[in-house]
C-alpha cells in the first residue's frame, strides 16, 4: 500500500516528519517498508511555455522557443512527436539533474544550440506502468494554469512523500486511506476529517433502466448506480497526480474515479458502458466450464465453474472482483455508465486470480476483506464525483441485491483480563481513553466492559484482540518488563552436549573433518561393523532398499563417503561423524530402538606427501591408534587395546577392541581387504567408540598441578623377553614395582633378529623419574631401577641386556 503523505495530512491533523511517523506506525502494528520522495535527486526543473515550434528540415526534430520565466526565451531542440506551440511543458535547465542522476548540459544537436531539455515523465523517474498512455511516447503536457519558471514539482505532486506500508492479512483495513487515517489518528490522538459528498438524483429511477440479480452463494451483495450523460475526458491534474503516486495509471475521469474510491475507501469498483449492454439485466453467477472472457488487458480467459462472473444477456462481461471485460469498457464515446459496488467471497476471488495469474488492486482487497459498512457510501461517493468531474446525471435510487451486516460487533472482557495479560495496572479511564483514540464506543465499569467495534475493523472479534489493541495504542515500550523467575530451568548444556562439543574439538584438532551420513542404510550394512548386532529395525515403506534399515554402526556410512571421494580422485581423507546408532533388543515392529551416541572416524591415503627430501608417509594402524589415544588422553581417561578377530569386515591381524574400565566400548583397525574391495576403496583404517559409555566414565577435571622446578632423570633399559610377552604385560610389571617417583615409561625400540636367540625379542624402554620437592640423587635412581628390574624379572621373566 502506497500512502501519499499530502493526502493523509488532509484526512487527519498530523504534521510530523515521515521518519517519526514511520517509526510510530511500525511499533504499533503496521510496518513501514520505507519512505520515498519522488523529487529527491531532481533539481532545476521548471515549467516552460512553448512560444514557437518549428520543424528542423530533414529531421524529426523541432526548434522551440521556450518561456521559462526569464527575460529572454530559451532555445531548445526537442524530438518529441507531441511538441507544439502554446503548450506548457517540463523543462530541465542547464545544470539540472534528472532521473539516474543525469546532468543536463548546454549542447548542440545537428549543429543547433540547445539550452536545456524538454522532459517526459520517464525522464523524471516515473515508471512507464503509471504514465498516462497519451504521454507514454512523448513529453508530458502540463495544465494551462502552470506558471512559466515555477518548479514543476508542486504541479505534479512530486514534492510529496510516499509511505510504503507492508500490510499483513489481519490488518487489511489499512488498505485504504481512510483506514490509514484512522490508524494515524489513534496513534497521535487526533480526529479524522473525511470529506462528504451528496448525490443529486434525477428522474427516471435507475430501476426503470436496469435490473440486478445474484445466482451464487459466493456473492454477499451486489449494488449499482446509473450515471447518464457523462463526458469522458482526462482527469484533472490533482487526481492524475494522486493515482500516479499510488502506483496506478490514469485512464480517464470515469475509470480514475473508481480507482480513487478504491484507494480512499478500500472498496473495489468497476464502471460499465451501459450502452454496450445487450440486455438490461445484470446477473452475477458462477462461470460455466466452456465460457470465455476477453478482459481489459486484451487476453482471452478460459473460465471454470469456480470463477465468479458478471453477465449480461447470459454472457460474461467482467471477471467478478478481478478485472472487467473488454466488451463493456469505458471509452471516449461512452455516455451512460453503470457503477458497480459489491462484496464477493475472498476465497473464490483468490482462487481465480491465482489460477489466471491475474493479480489486481481489486482482487487483493476482496481476498483480505471489505468494510461492509461503507459499500453503499463508497458507491454514492463515486457517483457524486462523476457529477463533479464528468458532468453526469445520477438516476434516482440504488440497484441492490443482498444485505450486509453493518452494525458494530460487541466484544466484552474484564479489566483484570487485560491487566493480567499485559502486566499493567490500567484503570477503566485508561481503557476509555485508548478506545476513544480508536473511535470505538465503550460501555461498562471498572470490572467489566464492552467495546463496540466498527465494521471497518473486522480483525477484532475476541477478548485477545481487544488486549492487542490496548497494548499497541498504549505503547509496547510502556509495558512493564520482568525478569524470569528463579525457579525456572537454568539454560545450560547437558553432559552429552558438552562431551559432543569436546569430541568435535579433539577430532578437528587431530586433522579430521566432520561429515553427516544417513541414519538409514541397507539391512546388510546396518550390522556389518557392529560388535554385538541386534535385531534390525526396518521401515515399512522405505524410499529405496538403500535407505530401508536403521544403522547399528556409523563406519559403513563413512566408507560410502570414502568411496564417493576416491572415485573423484580425492584420495587423502580423514573424516569423522558424531551420530546415533540404533540398538533393537525387542520386537522391531513394536518396540522403539535404543539410540546410542557414537563417534567414528575413517582414514585413508597419505599423512604426508612425498617431496624432494622425504618419502610419502601413508596412514597406518599406529597413526589411527594415536588419534584414539589422544582422544582419551584429552578426556583424562585410560583405555586398553586388545586384539580383535571376531569382526569379519576388519583385518584380523590389525584390529583391536577398545576397553575402558573392563568394558569394550569400541574398536579400531584396518578394513579387511576384501571389504575394502567391495566398497571399491584403497587401504583404510576406521574406529568407532560408544560415547554413552565414555560419558558414563568421565571424571571431574583434575586440579592443576604446579610444574616442579626440580629436574627429571631418565634411565634406559633393554630387556630380553619371550616373543609372547606383550608391551602391556611389561607396563603392568613396571607399575607393580610401586616406584612413586617414576613419572613416565616410553618404549623406544623393539628388535627380534639374528643377534638374539630364537623365540626372544629385545624391547628397550626409557624410564623417567622426578621428585617434585627435591633433586634426585644417583643412588636414589639406582635404587628405583633395581626395584623395577626385579619386578620385570619376576613378572615377565625379563633379562636385562
UniProtKB/TrEMBL annotation:
The cofactors it requires, by name, are:
Mg(2+)
Cofactor binding: number and manner: Binds 2 magnesium ions per tetramer.
> EC number(s) of the enzyme?
6.1.1.20
Q: What keywords are assigned to this protein?
A: Aminoacyl-tRNA synthetase, ATP-binding, Cytoplasm, Ligase, Magnesium, Metal-binding, Nucleotide-binding, Protein biosynthesis, RNA-binding, tRNA-binding
Ligase as UniProt keyword: yes
Task: List, in alphabetical order, the Gene Ontology terms for molecular function in this entry.
Answer: phenylalanine-tRNA ligase activity
Spell out the Pfam families in the cross-references.
Answer: B3_4 (PF03483), B5 (PF03484), FDX-ACB (PF03147), tRNA_bind (PF01588), tRNA_synthFbeta (PF17759)
Q: Which family does it belong to?
A: Belongs to the phenylalanyl-tRNA synthetase beta subunit family. Type 1 subfamily.
Q: How does it assemble?
A: Tetramer of two alpha and two beta subunits.
Q: What is this protein called?
A: Phenylalanine--tRNA ligase beta subunit
Source organism per UniProt: Streptococcus dentapri
Gene giving rise to this polypeptide: pheT
Amino acid at each position: 500500500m502506497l500512502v501519499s503523505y499530502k493526502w493523509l495530512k488532509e484526512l487527519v491533523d498530523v504534521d510530523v516528519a515521515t521518519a517519526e511517523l514511520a517509526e510510530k506506525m511500525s511499533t504499533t502494528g503496521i510496518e513501514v517498508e520505507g519512505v520515498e520522495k519522488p523529487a529527491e535527486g531532481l533539481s532545476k526543473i521548471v515549467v516552460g511555455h512553448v512560444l514557437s515550434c518549428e520543424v528542423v528540415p530533414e529531421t524529426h526534430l523541432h526548434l522551440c522557443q521556450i518561456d521559462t520565466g526569464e527575460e529572454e526565451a530559451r532555445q531548445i531542440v526537442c524530438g518529441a512527436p507531441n511538441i507544439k506551440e502554446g503548450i506548457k511543458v517540463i523543462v530541465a535547465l542547464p545544470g539540472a539533474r534528472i532521473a539516474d542522476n543525469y546532468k543536463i548540459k548546454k549542447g548542440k544537436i545537428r549543429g543547433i544550440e540547445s539550452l536545456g531539455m524538454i522532459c517526459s515523465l520517464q525522464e523524471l523517474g516515473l515508471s512507464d506502468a503509471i504514465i498516462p498512455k497519451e504521454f507514454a511516447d512523448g513529453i508530458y503536457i502540463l495544465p494551462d494554469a502552470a506558471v512559466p519558471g515555477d518548479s514543476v514539482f508542486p504541479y505534479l505532486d512530486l514534492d510529496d512523500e510516499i509511505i510504503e506500508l507492508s500490510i499483513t492479512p489481519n490488518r487489511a483495513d489499512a488498505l485504504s486511506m481512510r483506514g490509514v487515517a484512522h490508524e494515524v489518528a489513534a496513534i497521535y490522538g487526533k480526529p479524522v476529517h473525511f470529506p462528504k459528498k451528496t448525490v443529486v438524483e434525477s428522474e427516471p429511477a435507475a430501476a426503470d433502466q436496469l435490473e440486478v440479480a445474484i445466482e451464487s452463494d459466493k456473492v454477499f451483495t451486489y449494488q449499482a448506480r446509473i450515471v447518464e450523460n457523462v463526458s469522458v475526458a482526462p482527469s484533472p491534474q490533482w487526481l492524475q497526480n494522486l493515482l500516479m503516486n499510488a502506483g496506478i495509471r490514469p485512464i480517464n475521469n470515469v475509470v480514475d474515479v473508481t480507482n480513487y474510491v478504491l484507494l480512499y475507501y478500500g472498496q473495489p469498483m468497476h464502471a460499465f458502458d451501459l450502452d454496450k449492454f445487450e440486455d438490461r439485466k445484470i446477473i452475477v453467477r458462477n462461470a460455466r466450464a466452456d465460457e470465455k472472457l476477453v478482459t481489459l488487458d486484451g487476453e482471452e480467459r478460459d473460465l471454470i465453474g469456480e470463477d465468479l462472473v458478471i453477465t449480461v444477456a447470459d454472457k460474461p462481461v467482467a471477471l467478478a472482483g478481478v478485472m472487467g471485460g473488454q466488451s463493456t469498457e469505458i471509452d471516449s464515446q461512452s455516455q451512460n455508465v453503470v457503477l458497480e459496488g459489491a462484496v464477493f467471497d475472498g476465497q473464490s476471488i483468490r482462487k481465480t486470480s491465482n489460477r489466471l495469474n491475474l493479480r489486481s488492486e481489486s482482487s487483493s482487497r476482496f481476498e483480505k476483506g471489505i468494510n461492509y459498512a461503507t459499500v453503499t457510501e463508497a458507491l454514492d461517493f463515486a457517483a457524486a464525483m462523476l457529477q463533479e468531474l464528468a458532468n453526469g446525471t445520477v438516476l434516482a435510487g440504488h440497484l441492490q441485491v443482498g444485505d450486509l451486516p453493518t452494525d458494530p460487533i460487541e466484544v466484552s472482557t474484564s479489566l483484570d483480563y487485560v491487566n493480567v495479560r499485559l502486566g499493567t495496572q490500567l484503570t477503566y479511564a485508561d481503557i476509555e481513553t485508548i478506545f476513544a483514540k480508536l473511535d470505538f464506543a465503550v460501555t461498562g465499569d471498572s470490572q467489566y466492559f464492552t467495546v463496540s467495534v466498527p465494521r471497518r475493523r473486522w480483525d477484532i472479534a475476541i477478548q485477545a484482540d481487544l488486549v492487542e489493541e490496548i497494548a499497541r495504542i498504549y505503547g509496547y515500550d510502556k509495558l512493564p518488563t520482568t525478569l524470569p523467575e528463579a525457579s525456572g530451568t537454568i539454560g545450560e548444556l547437558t553432559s552429552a552436549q558438552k562431551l559432543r562439543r569436546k569430541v568435535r574439538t579433539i577430532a578437528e584438532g587431530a586433522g579430521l573433518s566432520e561429515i553427516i551420513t544417513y541414519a538409514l542404510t541397507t539391512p546388510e550394512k546396518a550390522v556389518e561393523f557392529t560388535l554385538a548386532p541386534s535385531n534390525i529395525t526396518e521401515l515399512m515403506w522405505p524410499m529405496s532398499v538403500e535407505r530401508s534399515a536403521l544403522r547399528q554402526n556409523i563406519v559403513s556410512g563413512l566408507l560410502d563417503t570414502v568411496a564417493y571421494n576416491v572415485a573423484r580422485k580425492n584420495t587423502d581423507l580423514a573424516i569423522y561423524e558424531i551420530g546415533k546408532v540404533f540398538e533393537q533388543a525387542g520386537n522391531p515392529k513394536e518396540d522403539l530402538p535404543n539410540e546410542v551416541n557414537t563417534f567414528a572416524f575413517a582414514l585413508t591415503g597419505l599423512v604426508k606427501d612425498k617431496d624432494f627430501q622425504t618419502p610419502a608417509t601413508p596412514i597406518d594402524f599406529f597413526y589411527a591408534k594415536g588419534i584414539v589415544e589422544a582422544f582419551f588422553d584429552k578426556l583424562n581417561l585410560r583405555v586398553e587395546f586388545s586384539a580383535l578377530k571376531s569382526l569379519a569386515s576388519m583385518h584380523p591381524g590389525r584390529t583391536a577392541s577398545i576397553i575402558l574400565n573392563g568394558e569394550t566400548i569400541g574398536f579400531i583397525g584396518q578394513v579387511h581387504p576384501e571389504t575394502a574391495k567391495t566398497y571399491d576403496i584403497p587401504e583404510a583404517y576406521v574406529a568407532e567408540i560408544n560415547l554413552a559409555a565414555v560419558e558414563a566414565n568421565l571424571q571431574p577435571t583434575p586440579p592443576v598441578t604446579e610444574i616442579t622446578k626440580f629436574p627429571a632423570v631418565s634411565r634406559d633399559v633393554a630387556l630380553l623377553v619371550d616373543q609372547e610377552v606383550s608391551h602391556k604385560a611389561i607396563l603392568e610389571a613396571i607399575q607393580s614395582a610401586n616406584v612413586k617417583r617414576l613419572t613416565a615409561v616410553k618404549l623406544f625400540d623393539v628388535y627380534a633378529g639374528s643377534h638374539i636367540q630364537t623365540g626372544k625379542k629385545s624391547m628397550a624402554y626409557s624410564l623417567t623419574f622426578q621428585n617434585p620437592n627435591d633433586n634426585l640423587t644417583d643412588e636414589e635412581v639406582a635404587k628405583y631401577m633395581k626395584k623395577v628390574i626385579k619386578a620385570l624379572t619376576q613378572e615377565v621373566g625379563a633379562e636385562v641386556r
